[in-house]
Amino acid sequence: MKKSTFVKTGLIVILVIGLVLVSYFISKRYHGIHSSVFQTVIMEPAIPIGAQLDWIDIDKIDRGIRRWDLVVVRYSKEILTVMRVWAIDGDTVIVGENEVSISWDAGWGSAKIKKTNSPCDLQGESRRMIGRNEYFLMGDNLRVANDSRYLGIYGRDKIVGVVVW
């Protein structure tokens, strides 16, 4: 094989690989898939600080948000964080003095989660049924997570995506 043929073949291979990579990244963006590095301790140890997660825009998923999903939440204008969905439409959240209890649909299950000294805001109620497009979110690292136990129920408008594996 001549040197010029070898060089041409190499350039064609590099060009094809480049086109495949470009189309892959364009396709990810078109389908609403993002990859972000999250600098947060609230999901440790399941998700360590600095973990890179792929997530899909909430408007691009073809199913609703489910209990136990990891969701990407707009914590502030510039900050995104990840939390786990603990309660969805129809579930009941009860706020006690030192704990939060959650009862899932039709008695399927329940959980009691300790909280620290910060109050939980359920719009002045100690017992609340989660409504449509509302979610009770918590981080896995319960000692440090600033989540629904302290900030109250999250509306659908605060959730920007769902983590995909």
Fill in the keyword field for this structure.
four-stranded antiparallel sheet; Umud Fragment, subunit A; 2 domains; 2 helices; single chain; 11 strands; alpha+beta; elongated; seven-stranded antiparallel sheet; 165 residues; 19% helix
Number of domains: 2
Beta-strand fraction estimate: 25-35%
Which parts are unreliable, with pLDDT below 50 for 5 consecutive residues or more? Answer: none
Q: On the 0-100 scale, what is the average pLDDT?
A: 79
Report on the structure:
By secondary structure, the protein is α+β, with helices and mostly antiparallel strands. It has a 7-stranded antiparallel beta sheet. It has a 4-stranded antiparallel beta sheet with strand order 7-6-5-8, with no helix packed on it. Strand 6 (99-103) and strand 7 form a beta hairpin. It is elongated, with a radius of gyration of 22 Å. It is built from 2 helices and 11 strands; from the N terminus they run αβββββββββαββ. Helices cover 19% and strands 34% of the residues. The protein folds into 2 domains: 1-30; 33-164, Ribbon (Umud Fragment, subunit A).
Please specify the SSE layout and strand pairing:
Elements: H1 3-30, E1 33-38, E2 51-57, E3 70-74, E4 80-87, E5 92-95, E6 99-103, E7 110-114, E8 127-129, E9 134-138, H2 148-151, E10 154-155, E11 159-164
Antiparallel strand pairs: 1-2, 2-11, 3-4, 3-11, 4-9, 5-6, 5-8, 6-7, 9-10
